[in-house]
Amino acid sequence: MLKNWLKIAFINYRKNWLSTIINILGLSVGLCVFLLIFIHWQDEKSYEQHNPNKDKIYFIENGNASFGIMPSSSYPELTVSKEKFSEIEDYAIANSWSHYKTRLIAGKNSAYTSSCRASGSYFDFFPFERIAGSFKNAISDDNKMALSVETAKSLFGDEYQNCIGKTVKIDDSQNKEYVITAVYKNPAENSVFKPGFIMKHPDIGKQNNSQWTNYSYIGYFKIKPGTDIQNLEKKLSDQQAAQERILSEKWGEKYDEKNSAKVYLTPISKMKLEAKSEGVQKGDKKSIIILLSLSALILLLSGINLINLKTAQASQRAKEVGVRKVVGSTKSKLVLQFLLETFMICFVAYIVAFAMVELLLPTYNKFLNKEIKLNDPNLFIYTGLLLIVFSLISGLIPALYLANFKPINTLKGNFARSRHGIWLRNSILTLQLIISSFFIICSLVIHTQVNYMMNKDLGFKGDQVINIQFKKTDWQNDYNSKKYIRLKNEVSKIAGVEDITGSINSIGMGFSNASVVRSALDTLKSVENVIVGAIDYNYFKFYKIKFASGRDMDLRFASDTISGAIANETFIKKMGWNQNQALGKELITGWEEKGHNYKIIGVVKDFYMTGMDKPIEPMVFFNYDRNWAKNNMGNLQIKISGNDINGTLERIKEFWTTKAEPGYPYDFEFVDKQFAKTYEKFQKQQTLFTTLNIVVLVIALLGLFALSSLLIEQKLKDVAIKKTLGADEKTIVWDLTKRFLLICVIAVLISMPFGYYAMNEWLKDFAYRIDMPVWPYVLSLLLLLILTFVVVSFKAYRATKINLVKYLKYE
């Protein structure tokens, strides 16, 4: 029986070779897209899964009215909570940032690598393979350090396992030596914990650690099994709110009870995607879920093609079904037979899809900045189950449809006019075109929004400006400030350099400091989360930022450098002032000691610093040179001449690598490109959606072509009769295509509210967004009508060239 079924299947595949190829190609592409996004999702979910304590360790986040939700905690919050709440076994501090690197020196060798400033419990929380030394008390003192294998090899070569007890230095002004206590191997699995070296956090045990609002530590709790996490979160939140209330009263402020402090606990196995704040190397869960859903739609579209073509081929299989039923075949056997045929197509498509994924994976990894490999056995288990389920769902509808044919009708030839079959095919084709229209609408709206962002006036001119971040920094003895002044003077002498400025916050790189600012005359009038804008005096002139009122800083006036402030438009609007009322107003800022007020001397027009998906923050700018911000200048922003850009860049590089920071890697970024990175995420979404849209259209049009071919072939006798009666080619082509065009119009109209809802939700992520345009909906209709007409009319026109005798000889 099975042999007979296979024989019949291959005969039908060969007979309908075009639809078979289209089915396999469509399913392969659909599965390939789904698999690529699925493995990205699985890769993101796999972070910290290797940690044996992953179900007990929780990442701590704090939220308050001033700063929103932060990925950091205060020191007393960690230490006091451990003693106060029995549910907490222990805490760990792990201040580790992959982008922040430090240079270590051992003799003539050096290593520029990422660090982790941690508490002594670090190795109890996070598993590392010990290569040499001991993890016990490895970072118990300020002069101890543990190295990764890679760092140890860079510093000590092949003898790296014998480096225990030897010393290394951090390249700073302190010239302090650290004893190596352990060498560890970073986990091969996905993890955010892969530092080049680990040492005790230098602030642990110091006096400022008693402040409950000094959110400077990335903290984790190890919590006892069976703990009610929500209840513990409430206890921690109440504790933090009480401490913030005490400090507010101490400072003479009224505590905002409606927006009191909140503490959130997220398992480390989920923090990569589900952290409430920006987390630690947090992934973009929302985008992944959207793409996964869209790829599932593409897979559905491939299944629709299969169902539609199988039901359209019913006329070719109807008599076969009738004969098999007459000779005693049961309905269940017929269903199994047709399911087997569907499964064979799906299995071939599954193999082809994996081959396509393997070919596309290097490019896909480059796009995602990842190193995903097809080596997870769970992937094959999950996708194997998906193949079986998909085969059942996509095969069951046509199988039941074919198996339900009545022998008396099929053998008489009445099956072709079944209203049920026509309705089913039309419904499935409509669904297919709805999905296609939805993708077209979404792609056009996304394209419009990204173009709007890229072409909007940013409020500053950053062309031909490069930003060089200092690699070697030191927060002691005004080292950074002196370095900034020295390098500014020396780089300005390089041929091709036109101007230089600096600031503690660089355009396109986010903000490092924010605080509350009050009016000195009315302290109840305040703005929270004001960006601290310490800048060099020529900053606004350098970037050609326009003034709305007042003037720029003038070095001839000592008051300008000591207490002069320049606010942006957003700040004065939040204060309730207009651009003229703001001039002369005095400000009390949270970043200065009592008695040091700032006076507004100018108001600059709003300009973007961190991207257009977020609203422009209130900012207050002041000269860096006369206050605490002096040592926070960690970059040079250099404007170069357009005459010899490459030559100037080479001269700057030579100076930097030989005199400014020898021994450190050199890199720079053009400020306009640096800012462009703020919408890189959305450009990637645009690219992905455009790619998915092309895939959807190809699959839909292939299916439409195959379906129209089968249906038009069934109408060739009608075409022959019409031609015999004198109908011209245009009339015949229109008769054969108008039904498809009507289905297309209905499908687009149905897709419009879904597209509108989806894009309206997507646009909510943007502080500055386009108004929902009408033209993508109109263009979607026109584009699908044109494509449908072209695809169907091509086959319809060929139908008008048939041999009349062949189709009328039995009439």
How is the biggest beta sheet arranged?
A: 6 strands, mixed, barrel
The rounded distance between the terminal residues' Cα atoms is: 39 Å
Spatial arrangement of strands, main beta sheet: 3-4-9-6-8-7
Low-confidence stretches: 410-417
Quickly count the domains.
Answer: 3
Counting copies of identical and different chains, the oligomeric state is single chain
Helix content: 40-55%
User: What fraction strand?
Assistant: 15-25%
> What radius of gyration results from the CA coordinates?
34 Å
Count of DSSP strands: 22
Q: Average pLDDT across residues?
A: 82
Structural class: alpha+beta
Continuous helix count: 24
Structural shape: globular
Keywords: Cell membrane, Membrane, Transmembrane, Transmembrane helix
Pfam families: FtsX, MacB_PCD
Transmembrane segments: 21-41, 288-309, 334-359, 379-402, 423-446, 688-712, 740-759, 774-797
Subcellular location: Cell membrane
Molecular structure report:
- InterPro entries: ABC3_permease_C, MacB_PCD, Macrolide_Exporter_MacB.
- This is ABC transporter permease.
- This protein is α+β, with helices and mostly antiparallel strands.
- It folds into three domains: about 55-275, no CATH class; about 430-455 and about 675-810, no CATH class; about 465-675, no CATH class.
- About 50% of the residues lie in helices and about 15% in strands.
- The protein contains 24 helices and 22 strands.
- The strands form three sheets. The protein has a six-stranded mixed beta barrel with strand order 3-4-9-6-8-7. Strands 14-15-20-17-19-18 form a six-stranded mixed barrel. It has a four-stranded antiparallel beta sheet with strand order 13-21-12-22.
- Helix 2 packs antiparallel against helix 20, helix 8 runs antiparallel to helix 13 and helix 10 (about 330-370) packs antiparallel against helix 11.
- The longest helix is centred in the middle third of the chain and has 38 residues, at about 330-370.
- The radius of gyration is 34 Å and the shape is globular.
- Residues about 410-415 have low confidence and may be disordered.
